[in-house]
Specification:
single chain, D-Maltodextrin-Binding Protein, domain 2, binds fe (iii) ion, 10 strands, 2 domains, ten-stranded mixed β-sheet, alpha/beta, 44% helix
């Protein structure tokens, strides 16, 4: 009687061990990333070097990755989702694709407004969506706020990127959160009235239009300005930090969440915590000329040369919560 019992116990532990050695102690993580390969690979390589854990990844556009995660459901190999814009992260959570992570390290490293209040997603790098102007035709004293770009004094002088881009949807969503829908609509309508030309498909074209004299002032993400200046150091364009006496500059993040169906959550969380620390933050931000979310990490000298600014600290989950209202509003006021 004794022997079969021992054998059963032995096999139980064998199966237990085999099962968990493949899950709880996996030496590999899988990342689905809407952030481009050249921006994530140096960070992943560094982690592999430090931890021995291999990072496999696929990159694609955010909506494609969300569809894929939904379709794969419990069978997904993914452990983490990386994407740009809090609006996209909010959508992933809204679809039930993300797992809440309670971590004192993440709370200490990432400012409150740059992470989900329910800990489903966390900002990793910060980008400011700010005003850019022609140093030939605009004096910085002429500028003040996003709202003031609706003033008729900018008639036929404003250049914008298309309202189809999530960056602008998030910007307008945050305006709705701050001012209410009616006031936000007046502001955006004012922008549309001031456009010098039809909206452009990207931020670089927006700045090139200003350089070509098609307009004097625009709204862009800081790293696109950085890319342009890197290529052509003496361009007559400068960044302006708006709303410094009020709400602050509109910021957004590229960020990450642990996939709800991940089989390696403990390792995924350890990786996420590492991503919020010094070495990773520096690599992650510098690769795209962004700002680290972790305020203790030094900013790249070129990015730092653009000056310091007060940022809007309203929680970025609002970019997602008000996104459909923002899309409807922009459509209503004729922002193409
Ligand atoms: Fe971008």
């Amino acid at each position: 009687m004794k022997r079969p019992f021992h054998r059963a116990v032995f096999f139980f532990f064998l199966i237990f061990f085999l099962f968990f050695s493949d899950t709880a102690f996996s030496r590999e993580l899988v990342v689905y990333s809407a952030r481009k390969e050249h921006l994530i690979q140096p960070v992943f390589n560094r982690y592999t070097k430090e931890s021995g854990i291999q990072i496999k990844y696929i990159t694609d556009k955010a909506p494609v990755l969300l569809q894929r995660l939904k379709a794969e459901a419990d069978n997904t190999p993914a452990d983490l989702l990386i994407t740009v814009d809090a609006g996209n992260l909010w959508h992933a959570d809204n679809e039930g694709l993300l797992h809440p992570v309670s971590s004192n390290i993440l709370v200490a490293n990432i400012p409150r407004h740059l992470r989900d209040p329910e800990n489903k997603w966390f900002g990793l790098s910060l980008r400011a969506r700010t005003i850019v102007y022609s140093t030939k035709r605009v004096k910085p004293e002429d500028l003040s706020t996003y709202e003031a770009l609706a003033d008729p004094k900018w008639k036929k002088r404003l250049v914008l990127r298309t309202s189809k881009k999530v960056y602008n949807q998030s910007l307008v969503a945050m305006l709705i959160k701050e001012h209410g829908e009616q006031k936000a609509a007046e502001i955006v309508k004012g922008w549309v009235n001031n456009l010098s030309t039809a909206p452009f498909s990207n931020d670089t074209k927006t700045m090139e239009a200003i350089l070509a004299g098609q307009g004097d002032v625009g709204i862009v993400n800081t790293y696109y300005y950085g890319r342009l200046v890197k290529k052509t150091p003496d361009i007559p364009l400068a960044l302006f930090w708006p709303n410094q006496a009020s709400s602050g500059v509109h910021v957004n993040v590229s960020g990450v969440g642990v996939v709800a169906a991940s089989k390696n959550k403990a390792q995924a969380i350890a990786f996420l915590e590492w991503l919020s620390g010094g070495a990773a933050q520096k690599l992650f931000a510098d690769a795209n000329m962004e700002y680290p979310v972790n305020p203790k990490v030094p900013i790249h000298p070129m990015v730092a040369s653009w000056g310091t600014f007060k940022q809007n600290t309203i929680n970025l989950k609002n970019a997602g919560e008000y996104q459909s209202a923002a899309i409807r509003l922009m459509d209503r006021v004729g922002y193409k």
